[in-house]
Amino acid sequence: MKIALTCMCSLLLTFCAMSQNAEMKLPAPQKTGGMPLMEALSKRATNRSLDPARSLSDQQLSNLLWAAWGINRPDGRRTAASAMNRQEIDLYLVGRKAAYLYDAKEHSLKLVAEGDHRSEVSSQDFAKNGDWIVIFAADYDKMGGGNEAIAGIDAGLIAQNIYLYGASEGLGVVVHASVDRDTISKVLKLRPAQHIMIAQTVGIPTR
Q1: Are strands 89-94 and 132-139 parallel, antiparallel or unpaired?
Q2: Contact call for residues 169 and 63 (beta carbons, < 8 A)
Q3: Of 15, 18, 39, 163, which sees the most CB atoms within 10 A?
Q4: DSSP E strands, the chain
Q5: H helix or E strand, kind and range, residue 151
Q6: How far apart are CA 119 and CA 46, in angstroms?
Q7: Which residues contact 159 (CB under 8 A, 6 or more apart)?
């Protein structure tokens, strides 16, 4: 009886921990301040030298996601343009402990998969060393069947926002098309209509 109760308590604690981790509420994004635009443009660069031991703060992650693809108007429009405002790009984050889907309306991260799957995205060192890998998945259903060129443009606009925030904050950022799409699509539980366009690794630079 005592063993059964212990097992039940253990299962209950595990379930509670999983429920609590199912959503990561981000701090409110800081929408003022930062580096002036022209200075950020002058510093925008790709940096593959990322420190595997250091992480972005929760505030930096919040600001980055809002800058990338957050809601900036009452009607739900975003910080980056999308063709006919279809907002077909979903942002997934693959990190050290789990993979998440960014929910712009709630400004939170929804748990998709537990564990570190960064090396499954790409075997390159910068991807394994970066704090987060942002996966850009275009939902072709939202586009009435899909258009790879338009989805690619929309993903690129978001990627540039991440680059500019990274320049302003002194982060290392790398955009890359090298993604093991089949493997990571299964990890992220993508639907057939969701197509990975690009990925972007973000972390703390070593220099």
Answers
A1: antiparallel
A2: yes
A3: 163
A4: 23-25, 89-94, 98-103, 108-114, 132-139, 172-176, 194-203
A5: helix 148-169
A6: 20
A7: 136, 175, 198, 200
* CA 101 – CA 205 distance, rounded (Å): 24
180 in the Ramachandran plot: left (φ > 0), alpha (ψ -120 to 50) or beta? Answer: beta
Both tokens of residue 124?
């390159």
Please tell me the distance from the alpha carbon of residue 136 to that of residue 172, in angstroms, as a whole number: 18
Per residue in 132-163, pLDDT (tens digit) is: 999 999 999 999 988 999 999 999 999 999 99
pTM over 0.70: yes
- In 142-166, which positions are buried (b, 16+ CB within 10 angstroms) versus exposed (e)? bbeeebeebbbebbebbbebbbbbb
Q: Residue 197 corresponds to which tokens in the numbers above?
A: 């366009």
Is the predicted pLDDT of residue 57 greater than 70, yes or no? yes
For position 21, what pLDDT does the model report? 61
Is residue 50 classed as helix, strand or coil in its secondary structure?
strand
Question: Tokens for 186?
Answer: 């299964």
